[in-house]
Amino acid sequence: MILVTGGAGFIGANFVLDWLANSDEPVLNLDLLSYAGNLENLASLQGDKRHIFLQGDIGDFDLVSRLLAKHQPRAVINFAAESHVDRSIYGPEEFIQTNIVGTFRMLESVRAYWNNLESNAKPEFRLLHVSTDEVYGSLGKGDTAFSETHRYEPNSPYSASKAASDHLVRAYHHTYGLPVLTTNCSNNYGPFHFPEKLIPLIIVNALADKPLPVYGDGLQIRDWLYVKDHCSAIRCVLAKGRPGETYNIGGWNEKANIEIVHIVCSLLDELRPRADGKPYKDQISYVTDRPGHDRRYAIDAGKIEQELGWKPAETFETGIRKTVTWYLDNQPWVANVLSGAYRDWVARNYESRV
Ligand code: NAD
Ligand code: TYD
Hints:
Elements: E1 2-5, H1 10-22, E2 27-31, E3 51-55, H2 61-71, E4 75-78, H3 85-90, H4 93-115, E5 126-132, H5 157-176, E6 180-185, E7 187-189, H6 198-207, E8 212-215, E9 221-226, H7 227-240, E10 246-249, E11 254-256, H8 257-271, E12 284-287, H9 302-308, H10 316-329, H11 331-339, H12 345-349
Helix pairs in contact: 1-7, 2-4, 4-5, 6-8, 8-10
The structure holds nicotinamide-adenine-dinucleotide and thymidine-5'-diphosphate (TYD).
Keywords: Lyase, NAD
Protein name: dTDP-glucose 4,6-dehydratase
Cofactor: NAD(+)
């Protein structure tokens, strides 16, 4: 059994689905179901006894301790977080609460559990903390990509809160010997991505005949990885990573935001042309820039590739085509997110139990 936190969100849900497609080892999924948690992402697992869902907070020490004692997982994978930079700018409090205080409390529960494990289970246990490349700050045009030794220079409340959680995880290894692994991944895209983030927002707005907002000059660069490649990297680090180490994850796929928007528009022109025959790029609208907007992220994935033998399966071209096609094929999922109906999914379909 593994415990996954935040497994109803974008990457966590993809991870749970992927895990159970590759293994019969059960997953205990603990998720608070904040606005970003959507159990519809896991609808295909209904009735599957290998998946146990529980609504709860990683910062609830008693709850997490009880769960650990009851289910005795061999690993904890922590996806739970507030994850949207724009939200962190307008309301940082929840980021501090979940990403810093929540991670700290979870570490305390996990440390107590790990301390009491039998001597044969103790060295096998792992806590894998899922983090972001944004902790490294912003790169200039000619700078080399982020390696694991790049200094932390977070610029947004989101990235600062993730950086703080990474430091706590690191400290629990150095101080208490907790066998932790940390992964720092670049921007993900793919199925079940909440349409507040760039790629799903562009797809959803384009189809709804709404403006496609591009911040500032649109020349900010992100390094994009298909979400299922992130999931396979996490499985690889969990299986082969060395405790106490951090691994950067990325697909060597830097693109400017405006280029991303043009690619998505062209795919939609091909797959679902506008009724008036005009190109979707006509809907692009340049808007005021994000405060403190990081200019460029780029991941050097050499360590995970060379030490652990991981490689992404998708190129950006194959991954983005799959993504746009998924959104076109899953319009009811989009409609439920936009209307807020996805939040009733628990009452309609699941019974939370502790
Ligand atoms: P998301 O916002 O889609 O999902 C986060 C999930 O965590 C949601 O299901 C939410 O309900 C849950 N959650 C929030 N607070 C919680 C709490 N206190 N206790 C339990 N559950 C809680 O985020 P995501 O994009 O899936 O990101 C998952 C993780 O990966 C985050 O830690 C994020 O920092 C990291 N990450 C994301 C990206 C990306 O591009 N999205 C890239 C690198 C790293
Ligand atoms: P986002 O998906 O929010 O991820 P992050 O900020 O974590 O990288 O944004 C990706 C990039 O796209 C970022 O440079 C901000 C930009 N952006 C827009 O230009 N317009 C938008 O509407 C959004 C949501 C983001």
